[in-house]
Specification:
Blueprint (H helix, E strand, L loop, with lengths): L12 H14 L4 H10 L2 H7 L6 H10 L4 H11 L25 E4 L1 H14 L4 H8 L3 H5 L10 H11 L7 E4 L2
Antiparallel strand pairs: 1-2
Helix pairs in contact: 1-4, 1-5, 2-4, 6-9
Length: 178
């Protein structure tokens, strides 16, 4: 008899957008001001690296698309002080927080660690990449590409993977200097 696994709840990017918008409205900020506040959270690191700041369009785009890159989502979640699971309906991991970071670091997904855990679990379940992709509602190339992804994958996919692994997102989030 085949054991059916419960459906994986989807990360609600629109709920994340609404939470940001509520804080923005309460603090009487424009979206460009929110973008500056989010970027200023890592002011010392940003000054060293000369990276380009997060765009207000990235923030407002979440409200249209309901998804963004997993790395961009961490900027937003840090500003809100919320763990990613707060925006996954029914998640049991809502109290597990990512690492605390100061102005010399930023939160980043460790995609290599996520890919390794995904591959290990896939092997333990004796699944092909194609079968794992069906369970995770994506393509097999999206899964196999995670280990070589330079910057990011979508937040919805990242959160489906951590739910599938039955682990908190914080297991794959690091306080980075880049």
């Amino acid at each position: 008899m085949t054991r059916t696994r419960p459906a994986i709840a989807e990360f609600d990017g629109l709920a994340l957008f609404r939470a940001m918008d509520a804080k923005r409205s309460k603090e009487e900020l424009s979206w460009p001001q929110v973008a500056r506040e989010i970027w200023a959270q890592s002011a010392a690191l940003n000054a060293k690296r000369a990276d380009h700041p997060i765009s207000p369009a990235t923030l407002t785009g979440l409200g249209r698309r309901g998804d963004c890159t997993c790395q961009h989502a961490l900027f937003m979640l840090r500003w809100l002080g919320e763990p990613p699971e707060r925006f996954v309906p029914g998640s049991k991991q809502t109290r597990v927080r990512p690492p605390a970071v100061g102005p010399h670091r930023r939160l980043r997904w460790d995609l290599k660690a996520l890919a390794a855990a995904l591959d290990s679990e896939r092997r333990a379940r004796e699944l092909t990449w194609a079968a794992a992709a069906v369970e995770l509602r994506c393509t097999s190339s999206q899964l196999t590409g995670i280990r070589i992804a330079r910057y990011a994958i979508g937040m919805r996919l990242a959160m489906r993977i951590v739910a599938w692994l039955d682990r908190p997102a914080s297991d794959f989030i690091v306080a980075a200097r880049w």
